[in-house]
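Margin note from the TA: students keep mixing up input and output lines. Inputs are the sequences; the output is the structure of the whole complex. Example:
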Amino acid sequence: MKNLLVDKNSGDNIQVKVRDVIIGAQEKTIISGPCSVESLDTMMKIGRELKALGVHILRGGAFKPRTSPYDFQGLKDDGLRILSTVGKEMNLPIVTEVMDARDIEDVLKYADMLQIGSRNMYNYTLLKEVGKTKAPILLKRGLSATISEWLYAAEYIMAAGNENVVLCERGIRTFESYTRNTLDLNSVAVAKQKYRIPVIVDPSHGTGLRELVSTMSVASIAAGADGLMIESHISPDNSVSDARQTVSMETLGRIMDTVRKLETVL
Amino acid sequence: MKNLLVDKNSGDNIQVKVRDVIIGAQEKTIISGPCSVESLDTMMKIGRELKALGVHILRGGAFKPRTSPYDFQGLKDDGLRILSTVGKEMNLPIVTEVMDARDIEDVLKYADMLQIGSRNMYNYTLLKEVGKTKAPILLKRGLSATISEWLYAAEYIMAAGNENVVLCERGIRTFESYTRNTLDLNSVAVAKQKYRIPVIVDPSHGTGLRELVSTMSVASIAAGADGLMIESHISPDNSVSDARQTVSMETLGRIMDTVRKLETVL
Amino acid sequence: MKNLLVDKNSGDNIQVKVRDVIIGAQEKTIISGPCSVESLDTMMKIGRELKALGVHILRGGAFKPRTSPYDFQGLKDDGLRILSTVGKEMNLPIVTEVMDARDIEDVLKYADMLQIGSRNMYNYTLLKEVGKTKAPILLKRGLSATISEWLYAAEYIMAAGNENVVLCERGIRTFESYTRNTLDLNSVAVAKQKYRIPVIVDPSHGTGLRELVSTMSVASIAAGADGLMIESHISPDNSVSDARQTVSMETLGRIMDTVRKLETVL
Amino acid sequence: MKNLLVDKNSGDNIQVKVRDVIIGAQEKTIISGPCSVESLDTMMKIGRELKALGVHILRGGAFKPRTSPYDFQGLKDDGLRILSTVGKEMNLPIVTEVMDARDIEDVLKYADMLQIGSRNMYNYTLLKEVGKTKAPILLKRGLSATISEWLYAAEYIMAAGNENVVLCERGIRTFESYTRNTLDLNSVAVAKQKYRIPVIVDPSHGTGLRELVSTMSVASIAAGADGLMIESHISPDNSVSDARQTVSMETLGRIMDTVRKLETVL
């Protein structure tokens, strides 16, 4: 891995601008929202709470990659419209997943940042296509991608012309079954020390257990992460998907308080 | 996992027809050819040898998913034309990988069977799109896909209307580093015993070491596989990609002899 | 890994003699019996059936390594006496696990071959001590031991003076949860091709599912294994431990028939 | 896993006393020293520096479990004597590994705390024997032990009568090869939240790369660890073993400063 665009020596540390939010700057970026967009009403309530807490970017899944073709696949275009409405109302930038290269243009009408999900980290077609836009990209690590494959995935996007890439560590697949995934904070330390790209951590998928999210959020920031993406809901137990790993607004608030205290020490 | 199209009780065992070749019938199907299509001349020589050995389907990569964006990405359309020319000359059906939903129609002008590679097993967009065709699909297992995720990926294709799906076990990612992957023949036994879908094995990727391909081919057939996909070349050491796991025509011939002997016993 | 006693070039292929049974010779060795020794009566019935089927070595656990200290830990000395009684009555050699270096002398009063279990593969104290005896050793692969660590474990025994070592592949720990372990037949091909040590396969632990044992037994022999170790019981569902992976005498008989047919082909 | 001695509801949180040091109390415990004991002179210099930094417990390997029987196996009894001499001189408690149940009594003449290494986590013989002493035990997680197997290993010691057990997370074996192991801080969060046993983290083995030790030390404390075990040396590059993951005294000092700052925030 020599002479890559992602290398420290190929330029300054990358900062990615999502509307007014800068990822990779001193302040840690908090991205939050429900796993799936469910309805305008619920989303508006969630957005209002997140805005009040000082969350920087609103997330929500409109297109959902699901293991079974018979599971809920997301509200799709309706979900995008809901996200966009709430984002405008609350003056919050929006990040949402795109799964199909043919949808990029449409999704960008509503969203400010595109997420490439874990299952699509090796989808080089999709990586090249988002590389042709100038949109900020949130690139999740593949389920069992090595650190070096993940950095090469970022390189696919950057080599296509788009340097606005943020990595997202979300846990890897191991033999351990107590937690949904094994959150690999070594990867954050490696990426931050040796490469010039911002890294955020998703402790929701990284643990799969809401009671661990708070602790692992703090550990992620301590490992050098530039921010967090946390699944939250006004009524976590009633989330349409990923309920077991979704935190309440109260928990999210406490996490943000601790992160802010930590920022002053590190 | 109840009431899936892939379940034994949802219909007869599936047999997939690729021109005159039937995968899932009594005779084991041998698919072979180089990792990448390199030139018309080399491909024609390879095709002639494979035809003489009795290989059933010719494989060759035209679109290559590579970890680095700077590695050789395949001859693309030129590769497809070469494959098609050789296939016609030798009267051999062609299987080749498709990576982009927008390429399906074009690739089907040249190929008889579409391969979904390991990196795209979770690319549900692509699965749904090949599900809209009637083309035979060779669905490789993802690098770290569970057996159940792999069966659900097949279900995505079948639920979209295309039952012509063949699974391909190609080794999974584990801690072991002596071999490139850990060939999981348990998965073949499970799929054959409990589901109605044909399964072939790729011992080339499943070991990464050409000296193990012969032994693991025999083991795969013994585990119940309906066929094999083996990377071969007239000059293995000069293969543009995957040289370390590519066998010679002589080795391939010996493998096919042993497989035939085994068929009479099992 | 150069100049090891286990290397091909350091001597002839090793054959390990367990009373009259030679492991590593042309005939495949079948080791069978229940997971745990339960009672003299049951063990005698099992021994009689196994003898009639032509099984070569009788296995049974007297000292059982269990994840929980509160689970059944085996009949210990009583178990050894039962095993020995049945072995003498049926004229069958006995293999059983030893977990404590201080027990070796005692266990060898009853058993003909010592098993080092997966959990003790890295227990170098125990390896060195069994290396000081001349007893045949069955060395199971650790839960997540690499092939090279496993060969080095054999080397610990051999370097201490005992060359009578047989490797036993029993599946490795991976992300896959459908099967109890992932049976790694690549490891058998590697060990047989590159080292001079016999290898047998345990498809019972390698799958964890009795309905897969038959198929994976055949695949193991096809991969070059010198024999099989299969958990069997006269009443599998009533086994005190590992019932889910224990086969009946009828199944064992069919497996042995197929193995014999396979021997003539390969 | 119900009604275990390790459960929260079976008693107060455990605090383990190693001479005057209390692990599991408010102050974080720092254990440090070289991978192997090399000589009295070097060890004395290291001990002096560690004492000056405020390290609480001195570590050093006298009995070394090594993959190859031909690698350096430690200074054994001489190593123990050196450790003990330095410990007395510097008034520092000593922790060192014991590999053989027959050595426990001897090792306890020199050491204040016994380490059970990763390779022996499933060595139930050894666990039961250290359980018969009252000595503080540092129980490292097995290379690929699940969290629940690790807790059961602690339970083996506790059920034998010794409650003075401290868990040590040291990274697990995964497919990732950039780092030596994948440090699993989820496991720390689980153990601290749901069980009553102290947990320390070994970021040296958990990363295998000295440049990551500092960052991952901080992350470990943030994840709730009660302390750290860090390999250090006065001349890291000249360490007899594990040089690549050994830090200098300067680095160790900086880590301890940051940990102290963190303690005040969390």
